[in-house]
Write a structure and sequence with these properties.
5-stranded antiparallel beta sheet, 1 helix, alpha+beta, 110 residues
């Protein structure tokens, strides 16, 4: 099963005006991690784009936290690929967020 792990140490420029990590940073991290899992299913001539990304935020994150997004492909069709993922603080076992994503996969192979 295709999967990926992507980590990020949260910096000051990831913070919102409320001094919490902005949700868009986590959404972008999930998008990258889900895309990496999709890449593992693709041929060299394929490319993909995000069709849908849903994120649930369970816990707030703080400056300096290291987070790890762990994603896995749950469905791979001819054109669509669906991925799910969980986000963890690197030093904790319980997830702080989750996502589901769907990607459109296009093959340039004839």
């Amino acid at each position: 099963q295709a999967s990926a792990e992507v980590s990020l140490v949260l910096r000051e420029d990831h913070l919102s005006p409320a001094k919490r990590v902005h949700g868009g940073v986590i959404s972008a991290l999930f998008d990258v991690a889900c895309g990496a899992a999709v890449f593992a299913t693709m041929e060299p001539t394929d490319f993909c784009s995000t069709v849908d990304l849903k994120v649930n935020y369970f816990r707030p994150l703080d400056l300096g936290d290291e987070v790890v997004a762990k994603t896995e492909v749950v469905f791979r069709g001819k054109k669509l690929c669906t991925v799910r993922g969980l986000l963890y603080r690197a030093d904790q076992p319980d997830p702080v967020g989750m996502c589901t994503a769907t990607f459109n996969v296009v093959s340039l192979k004839k």
